[in-house]
Amino acid sequence: MALEIEGSNPSAHPIFIQMLRRGSLSIQSGSSLWNPSTNPYLKDLEILKNGDEDGYNMVIHITLESSLEIFAISLPHLLPNRTGPTWSYLVNNDGWTLIDAGPYGALPSLEAGLGIIGKKITDIERVIISHGHQDHDGNTYDVIEKSGAVLWAQEMYFFFLGQHSSYSGLNSDSLLHKSILEFRNHTENSPSRLKSDYAKYRSRFRGYDESRQKIIKQVSQIHTIKDGDSLDKMTFLYTPGHSVDEICIDMDGVLFTGDHILPQITPHPTIVRKYPADLMDKIPDPYKDANNHYGLYCYLSSLGKALKLNNRKTVLPAHRLFNNNKFNIRNLMRGKDIIRHHSTRLKRIVNVIESGVQSPPEITRKLFPPRKLVGGGFFAALSEIVSHLEMLDKTKDIQILQNGNVKSTKQNNFLNVINQLLNDH
Ligand SMILES: [Zn+2]
Measuring CA to CA, which residue among 171, 411, 414 is closest to residue 297? Predict the structure, then answer.
């Protein structure tokens, strides 16, 4: 009998997991790993190599009803990360194509995974990057250098390759960014432990920044992806918001979502950044207004765009495909859960503002429990709040004061925007 993957999932039972670990057990759809009525395009899922409870070291073979075969290889992060490993997908689409190269330093793990599938790195003809975050493109140069594959990415990816990965894009002209800038400056100037932690953190990523420079200088075979482009069975959707260059790939009954739609995790929306001055002249006209390519409003609009597809397509995410001893096989309706999450947060923020709290750091302290605000947690939480305030500003639900504080306009226009996104699809 088919069961929902979340909740009471027998695959999470220790005995079941032991069975999986014993060998190449093939699991048919009827047995519980996904619900065939909500994911009708999946035919079979086989674990080729078992990993740990969060999917590290796992290799999976997925077959679709269309007979298309997809291999998923779990690649480890450079540093421990609560998102779990990055899932790279290998599929034969006009040649063997790797979707996401994985984190910096992951080449040995990728080669080991390919070996399990019976492939070599030189079999890869094309590497498609879902977006330019380290855990997705960190391994790109190493893969291309060894395979000779062609690099495919959304056109904005190539503009940002030259930027240092720590570039924040905070906009000193934005009143809402004042509090973030103040917090960041305070943190960097303080002789606290944070500063040395940050330096250590950055030094680990030096190799990543260097590898991006090598892509610029040494990788000549590149292909820029634009919204709506297609290649054989793949169609590319431009879905900015979590990242300025994010794409999803629609293929048969699945959508490869990168970090745009993840199970269990709500992807972090960007704040409305300012493009670096030296890029402004080079960035093509359709992208010149950063408001259309960054921020929560942009992210939610991109979710709406993905939801326009057949919602029963299965999400193949870059994280959490397997976590805590169970598979997370969701269809595109997962996008609606994420919209609801942000709707709830927007409502809570509006309530806090209407209760008289006006400054972004204070709103942050009201919204998040203290344990989430220690160390770098406060910075992440504050940026999350600012991204929501930017959306409320766009929908004219708040007024921003000269000192960076905010006031409610008591309009609640955001509810219409959210309802439209939820009801249109
Ligand atoms: Zn990302």
Answer: 414
Q: How far is the CA of 133 from the centre of ligand 1 (A)?
A: 5
Give me 413's structure tokens: 């226009």
**Res 28: pLDDT:** 46
Under CATH, domain 1-165+213-332 is a member of which superfamily? Ribonuclease Z/Hydroxyacylglutathione hydrolase-like (3.60.15.10)
Query: Is the pLDDT assigned to residue 93 strictly greater than 90?
Result: yes
- Please give the distance, rounded to the nearest whole angstrom, from the Cα atom of residue 347 to the centre of ligand 1: 25
CA of 270 to the centre of ligand 1 (A): 10
Please, how many CA atoms are within 13 Å of residue 225, restricted to the half-sphere of its CB?
28
Residue 10 Cα to ligand 1 middle (Å): 31
Residue ranges, CATH 3.60.15.10, the chain: 1-165+213-332
Q: What is the pLDDT of residues 373-387, one digit of tens each?
A: 987 788 889 999 999
Report CA(382)–ligand 1 centroid distance (Å).
18
| Phi then psi dihedrals of residue 142, to 5 deg | -60, -40
Q: What is the pTM of this model?
A: 0.90
Tens of pLDDT, residues 253-285: 999 999 999 999 999 999 998 888 888 889 999
- Strand boundaries in 177-307, DSSP class E: 222-225, 230-231, 234-238, 247-251, 254-258
> What's the 12 CA to ligand 1 centre distance in angstroms?
27
Nearest to 96 by CA among 78, 75, 116, 114: 114
E strands, 260-358, are 314-317, 322-323, 326-327
What does the pLDDT average to over 110-133? 98
- Measured in Å, residue 259 CA sits from the centre of ligand 1 at 5
Report CA(2)–ligand 1 centroid distance (Å): 32
| pLDDT score for 277 | 83
Contact 119, 96 (CB under 8 A): yes
Report the mean per-residue pLDDT for the chain: 88
State the number of CA atoms in the 13 A half-sphere of 316 facing the CB: 31
Contact present, 215 and 141 (Cβ < 8 Å) = yes
Nearest to 388 by CA among 422, 341, 425, 333: 341
